[in-house]
Amino acid sequence: MKMGKGLRVTGNVLAIDIGNTSIDLAILKDGKILNKYKTLTSLRGKKLRISLKKILLRINKEYKVKEAILCSVVPEKTI
Fold it and tell me: Could you give the CA distance from residue 72 to residue 15 in angstroms, rounded to a whole number?
């Protein structure tokens, strides 16, 4: 990652957006979306953990992620 006029990341980046209705995850490379994943913010406890774990295991299997970006408007879902 280089800082300066703009953020530059080499390799795959995991972007996570925790919103009021869904948690969206995307794999980015060179500013382009390679794949997108989604689960519901309304899931609670074990169901949410299982859903996110399945997505993260799939991402880990398919992509070598070097960096992550997280944004959230739901503080109680942000760990």
Answer: 11
